[in-house]
Amino acid sequence: MIQRLLSVWHARNLEFVRDRPTLIFTILLPLMIVVGMSFVFGGKERPLFKVGVLSAAIDRNAHPFLRERYVDFVPIADETEGLRKVTHQQIDLLVDLHGQPRYWVNTDSPRGYIVEKLLLAAAPGAQRQPVTGAAVRYVDWLFPGILGMNMMFSCLFGVGYVVLRYRKSGFLKRLHATPLSAFEFLSAQVLSRLCLILFVSVVLYAGIGTIIHFHTAGSLLALLLVAAIGALSLIALGLTIAARFSSEELVGGLLNLLTWPMMLLSGIWFSLEGSPQWVRWIAAIFPLTQVLDAARAIMLDGAGLYQVAPHVIYLACTALVFLAFGAWSFRWRVD
Amino acid sequence: MSIASDPAYPDVSAAPSSSAVPAGGAPILQVRDLIKRYPSVTAVDGVSFEVREGSCFGLLGPNGAGKTTTIEIMEGILMATSGEVRYRGEPLGQRFREQAGILFQKTALQDFLTVRQSLALFRGLYEHGLDVDEVIRICALEKLARRDNRKLSGGQQQRLLLAIALVNDPALLFLDEPTTGLDPQARRNFWELIQSIKARKKTVILTTHYMEEAELLCDEIAIMDRGRIIAQGPPRQLLREHFAEVLLELPRQDFPEEARRLPLRVLDTPERVEITTDDLDSTLRTLIEARVPLANLRIRPANLEDLFLELTGKELRA
User: Fold this and answer.
1) In whole angstroms, what is the distance from residue B85 CA to residue B75 CA?
2) Does residue B270 share a domain with residue B192?
3) pTM (2 d.p.)
4) Do B125 and A180 touch (CB under 8 A)?
5) CA–CA dist A50, B76 (Å, integer)
6) N or C: which end of chain B has fewer CB within 10 A?
7) Nearest to B108 among A7, A171, A179 (CB)
8) How many domains does chain B have?
9) Complex ipTM
10) Beta carbons of B110 and A19 less than 8 Å apart
């Protein structure tokens, strides 16, 4: 069994490596993401403090503090949202200048400490309300999302279309006439794609991580494990679609039907906190949501395997279910 | 292409197999009451036969006769509606898959692989088999071993597909219309290759609509039409059973309507009439007395194509 599996795995790898346009695109896409992110988030940081002001708009004449130079004042309408930003150090200070001035400062933030001095010089009696929390830049939060999105597309479309092409060309029918089982064939496809995805993800992690000076708070091995199990689940999900159908239009449509809800609801671009409960329940079904939640917990909060175990177990179970369903519903030939 | 230098595959292209009685011993494959129904058509309608070990068995018939459906059920890649196929007395299973080699009518291979890599892929799927180098030598693919399999000519591609079918050193080899679409030279080369495989006492099951191919290669044939076997046996025996010794051909325009009242066995084809007889002198006298012009008369022995025409009233390649 292992020999058969390795033969198909090896042949698939050779095919992928020699398919130059696809290979270049696979490498180029992450590179473009890296370059794009470096353009958006790279370069010298601006020497500005960022202060949130609880107000609909900034009126620089409303208070002497608002006339400070080198401070970027941003209006924040909602106090809860402002507090979250202070906690994650997305702003250095939150001030309410209506009536008796009061402010919230993150005691873990060095920038908060300095800008607090500026505020107290302008408003000596301001009421202090300390909060704590490590700094989380948006780019840090977005980083796992970019990795996950790339992984999702590669898993679903990369495997789905390859199996479909094999079926339509009759290559699967020829393999069917050998001792190779559906499970062996599918496992070889999964493993080949898994190796590729892990390689690309490591390159992407190293590239973007260097550019944005990202440091994973938790274990890299735990992160790799989450990436591997997550990719396994997503590849197996793609196979459930490609296992049976022979129409490119149908398979393309079904894969899009899977990817777009995950693009919107799995938390690639923004957090679902504050969304209706039913939206979060739906989002929790998607493997990508589980991957991103686990990855962010490891990368940003320093969580260990124990803390992310529910996500890993969920992903492993779905991978098995999808793979079993794929093998069961698999068709070697066009019906 | 030369395969005569390989001691395992001696040159046996001298005489057609059809002159011999069916070779082989015990049945290696048994087909019983095979039926395959699709919603709108019954492709195979109660087919039964046995293939003896070491023989070459040919399934003949026109397009749509049910040959490919029958052979794909025998190969175990298509489920029959009813009936059974047994390999060495057992239902088709892992043993069959390990010991059968298959060449489909149309097969695509994995892209971007060379000839050698394609063979290595399939060799890796079997527990036992030949070395890739040996298969390359048998099928005369040495000069093509490093070539991308997509860049082969039709004949070269068929040789590669045959090599893939041989990679597990099969006891039973299925060839589904192996020379369709090949030029005459490539077809002759391919026949030579199949004869060398037969010489190794391999069992070959062949579908074809080329009668010359069947007469040259097959020890036993079954003629199919509309999903049924309408005749079966060694080619020569079938011809003896169904035909007198000779066949006379005349252009249709040379054969007047009143001549149809003569006591002759006449078959019509689009361009000609065919008269079968076991008494050539008497038939010629009858035609001369009836003033049938004989300037374009052709006399030849009956062949499998005539047999099919006799049995079905249709041209074989229609």
Assistant:
1) 9
2) no
3) 0.70
4) yes
5) 72
6) C
7) A171
8) 2
9) 0.73
10) no
